[in-house]
Amino acid sequence: MHSMLPRLISTALIATTLVFAGSTLPTPVAAQTPATETRAPNPSGLPIPRWVSIRASEVNMRTGPGARYPIDWVLQFRNLPVEVVGEFENWRQIRARDDTTGWVHKSMLSGSRMASVAVARARVMQKPDSGSPVAAFVEEDVVVALDACEPEWCRVAIASHGVEGWIPRAALWGLYPNEIVTP
Fold first, then answer.
1. Is residue 22 scored above 50 in pLDDT?
2. Higher pLDDT, residue 38 or 63
3. What is the structure's pLDDT at 113?
4. For residue 177, is pLDDT > 60?
5. Which residues is 163 bridged to in the sheet?
6. pTM, entire model
7. What residue ranges define each of the domains in the chain, with the CATH number in brackets?
């Protein structure tokens, strides 16, 4: 019993020292950085957020940035547009259209610009004009390749069906407001 007393006192002193030392630690760098100052570059050097697409036909979306983290979702659609919202080493935190977020390895992503139809039924027009002839109708969630985007219209292609044309940008998910996409 007496041999336990020095160990308990030693443990109490260490705990007390840590509590007091913790109260004198400097404020984290993020809390010190003014909003106007730029942050350190992310691992890729590319902007965050940004749009990318899924490269493989099956991609494991994990709860954290690493293979040791459990798989939360399996994305089973090649070319699906996703938004990169974070980076850690070789891992990218992505957000899907339904706001699901998770981590995937960077090798599973492509820089190809894709978008998904965000309305029940969209008309693909032959020209960027609502009075133009209709080239095709596409349903919600159909993935299209973004060839170019102007302020009001995006030139798209659906290679699997040989369809090319223009869709109002408001009918698409996978680009930022006022973003201009060039060929």
1. no
2. 63
3. 96
4. yes
5. 158
6. 0.76
7. 50-111 (2.30.30.40), 115-173 (2.30.30.40)
